[in-house]
Write a structure and sequence with these properties.
alpha+beta, Arc Repressor Mutant, subunit A, 3 domains, eight-stranded mixed beta sheet, 11 helices
Length: about 300
């Protein structure tokens, strides 16, 4: 196996191997290679130091592997973002016209249909509500389907106004949704409803006073990024919904102390690996913990364990 598979060029590998064979003797001429330039590249890759001394092979390989893993992770992220393009192409095919970066959608029913089309395959939603929540029944078909998506790993966060919780029925609905995995917090910072899907598409209510007026569908990346930033900031300042831990949340907290690997812990609590890690991240955020160890300590202080 050569080092080109780990990201070195043939010239870089040749110079590195020469340095290993002849420590303390930097090559001066290797078949016309620009040796100083190659040495500078190797130094940037952290496989030779400032004196042109090669690092030990085990260290060099470890650093090259880490670099390749980071590069691969970035490539995978870029590839996964391509699904947004696929979704836009499907939308364009369905509508028979190009997808607009900002589109005005009239009427609540039209907005809801558009939202459900996108939400049926998404992996994350952020919801800022400006008015009391839906009175949807827990046994409603759409709610049950939503709960199945949550159980499969869909990550949902919802900000609700404090006034919506004055109604016991609304409070109970919020608690059921929260227990199912649609995590709720309380905030009165915004008066316009906003829904963000997969950090790529946002629906912004046209008229805060009229829930039936419609919405703007926004796909312009800069605008969506600004809305995501606003949501994250509001979420960090929002108050926790007064709900007890669910059974699965207690199991996840206990699993942090009992298992070393997430894969084993996820099987033990009978959820998918993605859902398990989502629970861990949400619990850490709820506890204000920076590490899993700290989350366990804070959970004990609160009497959650």
């Amino acid at each position: 196996m050569n080092l080109t598979s780990l990201g070195l060029t043939a010239d870089q590998e040749r110079v590195y191997r020469h340095l290993l064979r002849s420590p303390g003797r930097a090559p001066t001429d290797l078949d016309g290679l620009d040796v100083p330039a190659v040495l500078a590249e190797l130094h940037e890759l952290e496989v030779v130091d400032a004196t042109h001394t090669p690092v030990p092979p085990a260290v060099a390989v470890d650093r090259l592997i880490r670099r390749r893993v980071e590069e691969t992770s970035r490539e995978l992220h870029n590839l996964s973002s391509a699904w947004v393009v696929v979704r836009d192409l499907v939308e364009e095919q369905t509508r028979g016209r190009p997808v607009e970066l900002v589109e005005r959608i009239e009427g609540a029913d039209t907005v809801n249909n558009r939202v459900w089309q996108l939400a049926s395959t998404c992996t994350e939603t952020m919801n800022m509500k400006s008015r009391p929540m839906s009175r949807a029944r827990a046994d409603d078909k759409a709610v049950r389907a939503f709960h199945r998506r949550l159980a499969a790993g869909l990550r949902c966060r919802t900000l609700v106004p404090s006034a919506s919780l004055d109604d016991p029925a609304q409070h109970d609905y919020a608690r059921r949704q929260h227990a199912a995995g649609d995590h709720h917090r309380i905030s009165d910072e915004y008066r316009r409803q906003v829904l963000i899907i997969d950090r790529a598409v946002a629906f912004v209510q046209l008229d805060p006073a009229d829930g039936q007026a419609g919405a703007l569908e926004v796909r312009q990346p800069g605008i969506v990024a600004t809305l995501v930033e606003a949501f994250e900031g509001t979420w960090s300042r929002a108050r926790e919904l007064d709900v007890p831990l669910t059974t699965i949340e207690r199991q996840v907290l206990r699993s942090l102390a009992e298992y070393d690997k997430d894969e084993v812990a996820a099987r033990a609590v009978n959820v998918s690996l993605r859902k398990y890690r989502t629970h861990v991240a949400d619990l850490m955020a709820r506890l204000g913990a920076a590490t899993r160890f700290q989350a366990g300590m804070l959970a004990k202080e609160r009497g959650w364990l």
